Amino acid sequence: MTGPVTKRSFSLPQDVAERLEHEPNASAYVVDAVRARMRAEDLDAELARRGMTVSAEGRARARAQRAQVEQDWSPGRRAALRERSRRAAQEMVEGADRQAPAA
Q1: Nearest 5 degrees, angle CA 19-CA 25-CA 26?
Q2: Separation of CA 74 from chain center
Q3: Cys staple from 73: which of 39, 53, 62, 77, with CB 3.0 to 4.6 Å?
Q4: Residue 74 exposure: Cα atoms within 13 Å on the Cβ side
Q5: DSSP state, 1?
Q6: What whole-number distance in Å separates Cα of residue 48 and Cα of residue 27?
Q7: Residue 84's CB: how many other CB atoms inside 10 A?
Q8: Going residue by residue through the chain (103 aa), what tens digit of pLDDT does each one get?
Q9: CB atoms within 10 A of CB 78
Q10: In this structure, are residues 88 and 80 in contact, taking their beta carbons and an 8 Å threshold?
Q11: Which residues, including other chains, have CB under 8 Å from residue 47's CB and lie 6 or more apart?
Q12: How many CA within 13 A on the CB side of residue 47?
């Protein structure tokens, strides 16, 4: 962690406390978990801003579809698709960078 920090004290359920006991840096683990939640909330807000509402039912359907794909597809097939998606996203970003007017 960089920058100023604030010390907090929390009451935790036993299972969570036991999990954190196994972490070499429990504070960093908690920070990562909270930041992941913050990113998810930011994404939900951005989708809502664009007129797309994320519902509990929609999340459940997406989880079920993902589970089905993970069951049906081999790890190699999933890895190849992830790599193609990553490359396509990178090309989109690079294309947008090339099209942006110089400041």
Answers
A1: 40
A2: 23
A3: 77
A4: 3
A5: -
A6: 31
A7: 10
A8: 578 999 999 999 999 999 999 999 999 999 999 999 999 999 989 999 999 888 899 989 999 999 998 899 999 998 999 999 999 999 988 887 776 665 5
A9: 13
A10: no
A11: 53, 54
A12: 10
Measured CA to CA, the distance from residue 49 to residue 27 in angstroms comes to 33
Contact 29, 20 (CB under 8 A): yes
Q: What is the largest CA-CA distance in the chain?
A: 55
Cα separation, 43 vs 49, in Å, equals 10
User: Which of 22, 25, 26 lies closest to 10 in space, CA to CA?
Assistant: 26
Distance CA 35, CA 39 (A): 6
Give pLDDT tens digits for 39-61: 999 998 999 999 988 889 998 99
